[in-house]
Each structure stands twice: as C-alpha cells, then as structure tokens.
Specification:
Layout (H helix, E strand, L loop, with lengths): L7 H6 L1 E2 L5 E3 L13 H8 L2 E2 L2 H11 L3
Antiparallel strand pairs: 1-2, 2-3
GO molecular function, one term: structural constituent of ribosome
Keywords: Ribonucleoprotein, Ribosomal protein
GO biological process, one term: translation
C-alpha cells in the first residue's frame, strides 16, 4: 500500500501546535477592509483553534506533519 499523500491545500491553511491542536486563520480578511472596524480587523489577524468537531477530518488531510 503506498503512502498517503498530504492534501497541500489543507496543509497551507492549517498548522499543528506542539500539543497536537490545529490552528487556523480567520476568514473575512481579504477584501473590503475599508468598511470594517479597526477593532474587527485586529481581532481577525490572530489565529484561532479549530473546533473539535472538525479536528479528526483535518488531521487526516494534513497527515503527520
């Protein structure tokens, strides 16, 4: 059986932390930024942890990075 390939699209969007949790970026930070509040844009810059219901699926996609 060949090795499972990493889904590159998922690997570019998600990263594993040292403890095995999955980090993700926030949405809504690509365009129309002049209409968003400064406070909103500042909060969207930070990363967030993936919800526990999605962790199993994303770990399967990004493999053992």
């Amino acid at each position: 059986m060949p090795k499972m390939k990493t889904r590159r699209a998922a690997a570019k969007r998600f990263t594993k932390t040292g403890t095995g949790k999955i980090k993700r970026n926030h949405a809504y930070m690509n365009h129309m930024l002049e209409h968003k509040q400064k406070k909103t844009k500042r909060k969207l810059r930070k990363t967030a942890l993936l919800h526990k219901s999605d962790v199993k699926r994303v770990k399967h996609l990004i493999g053992n990075k």
